[in-house]
Fold this protein.
Amino acid sequence: MELVLPSHLHLDRLGIHYERKSFPPETEKGAANVARVLDFPERQAVKTLIFQVDTGERALVMLGGDQSAISGNLKKAIGSRNIQMASPEVVRETTGYVIGSIPPFSWQPENFRTFLEASLENEPVLGVGAGQWGEEIFLTPANLILASNAIVVNLTDREKPVTR
């Protein structure tokens, strides 16, 4: 019997097409390792990062496995100069998941902001955590944006504006 997680139910409810893949749970954590064992480009292995803002807001930021956000771009996108990565405890409290396989949808309360790095729209498919280590969901960038209600912003290119 196939494992059904809240992330799968969310996509099914929205009628969004996706593909499921599993990998050995003993795989070392990290997007690069998931990409390697499932044999797809690291750029397409999406990292889901939770940030805390000085206002008390928490936000989800999605980047390719081989990308890092430019601090200034991230601060502009979120709208605060005082942001930091959330601690593992805050991540669990916010998402209900432990770091390593946070799905980018299905758990956000209303008005929770989710950001996607704009360059990922150019990828044919993206892999995201399903909510349990060892389970990955593959979907198109457009479907990821739809499923997560993501705001698409430039977080990695100093030469381009943050928002369109």
Q: What stands out?
A: The domain at 6-153 is CATH 3.90.960.10 (YbaK protein). The mean pLDDT is 96.
